[in-house]
Amino acid sequence: MFNKILIANRGEIAVRILRACQELGIPAVTVYSEADVQAPHVLQAEESYLIGPPPVAQSYLNMHKILAVAKESGADAIHPGYGLLSENPEFVRACIQAGLTFIGPSPEAMVKMGEKTMARALMEKAGVPVVPGSEPLADLPEAQIAAETIGYPVMVKAAAGGGGIGMQVVNNPEELENAFQTCRSRAAAYFGNGSVYLEKFLEGPRHIELQILADHYGKTIHLNERECSIQRRHQKIIEEAPSPLLDEEMRRRMGEVAIRAAQAINYTNAGTVEFLVDKHRNFYFLEMNTRLQVEHPVTEMITGVDLVIAQIKIAAGEPLSINTLPPKGHSVECRICAEDPVTFFPAPGTIGDLELPSGPKLRIDCGVSAGYTVSPYYDPMVAKVITWGENRQQAIGAMVAALDKCKFNGIKTNIPVLKEILLHPRFREGAITTGFISENIVDSRKASLKK
Amino acid sequence: MKVVTANMAGVVLRLMVSPGEQITSGQDVVCLESMKMEVNVNAMESGKIKEVKVGIGDFVNEGDVLIVLE
């Protein structure tokens, strides 16, 4: 086992990893920027080092500084948390070169999943379903044949594109010609390359992901799914496990595919295979996150497995001692963000009083404390509230009650929005898609504003 | 006095206008960045810019005056 672990992160996840180290009896060292002098991840650590000014490029992303702290403090392993340096293969290689163990996958596995088109090709080869699509298309007749093969509705996409530019939904053969030509000229104008291709358009998709653990001896297991369809601006804000959509049979199939995806790249440590699921319950590989996820606690709540401790043990060379466990009960997580609940704009500020409830089925992973200033430099998430219930309705009920008792005085938070979602009849029914917030929350607000 | 104020707390990322310029209501005038998100501030009224009170990199609070109109 390790002598000392350096935690190269901040906020609630740094506190979470610190707790795992304490439970294992491993000394831990944290790092902080000038904006985080009073942060819990600094105050709760026995050893902590200042690594630079507030902007992440000069502090939490400064590899050389972090490696220098590891050396100075005598750490022999680094846990990267999520975000920041966690999916940077260059950092992993630098750790290895410095004689440190990176608590995560190999840089090779990270690279394979990092480039999205390469990942898609690798997954297809491994027999993992990806969203059906065509090769780049030469002309309209070719596009017509491809669209018939894939089946309408389809999406015309620029081959060189990204960020949604040059994407158009086509519902029937009549719309194809116009969309094909428009997309080609746009692609040429924006990307200097008029090449376009087709992809199946998924209506009302859900985002469902599988948690993977893999040791260094060829054992790979999954720990069930998480439903993460409640998103705004492509950021998840409410997650749950298990998914209200899945039955045992579909869970088994998705689990097998996720394990196959991880094994195809010789994946080790904890990872998450993300899928889009359409309304016909077909699932397609989206991407693999080669790190710990923000929403990992819901998996811990329904399996009893401590994922951070599992990560540390795997990295230290221990074989996986657990097998796939069926979900027990239901867990929900809400991300508390410092943002305006009406405009959704970030709202940094200083926290006055902080009141957090506690209870036997409640867990709060918090990265702030009373008197702490939430700065504009970092992610707006300040805490995660996680509840457990014997079933979904109980877990949701416990969440509403918990959020009612959370008080982050002095800053604006998204708690009113979270409650609005939790109390929405469609959410209660489990009828959720990635469009839920824009369809049910944002649009209804616009309508009431007009009145 | 007609002014343009910050719609959120953040750091000034870009200034899209300069003193003497005529602006119209709804026009984007300043881009603020906070917590990895860029948000444009638009003018609520039309007018000629008398003074730009902030510079790139300045931290502003919600409601702070960014621009003064004549």
Structure explained in plain terms:
- The complex is a heterodimer of chains A (451) and B (70).
- Helix content of chain A is 36%, strand content 24%.
- With 451 residues, chain A is of the alpha+beta class.
- Chain A folds into three domains: 5-103, 3-Layer(aba) Sandwich (Rossmann fold), CATH 3.40.50.20; 132-200, Dna Ligase, domain 1; 206-450, D-amino Acid Aminotransferase, Chain A, domain 1 (2-Layer Sandwich), CATH 3.30.470.
- In chain A, the strands form five sheets. An eight-stranded antiparallel sheet of chain A has the order 13-12-9-10-11-14-19-17, with helices on both faces.
- The mean pLDDT of chain A is 93.
- With 70 residues, chain B is mainly β.
- Chain B has a single domain (2-58), classed as OB fold (Dihydrolipoamide Acetyltransferase, E2P), CATH 2.40.50.100.
- Chain B is 0% helix and 53% strand.
- Chain B is built from no helices and eight strands.
- In chain B, the strands form two sheets. In chain B, strands 1-8-6-3 form a four-stranded antiparallel sheet, with no helix packed on it. A four-stranded antiparallel sheet of chain B has the order 5-4-2-7, with no helix packed on it.
- In chain B, strand 4 and strand 5 (37-42) form a beta hairpin.
- Chain B is globular and about 30 Å long.
- Chain B starts with a strand and ends with a strand.
- The model of chain B has no long low-confidence stretch (mean pLDDT 93).
- The interface between A and B is medium-sized, with 14 and 13 residues.
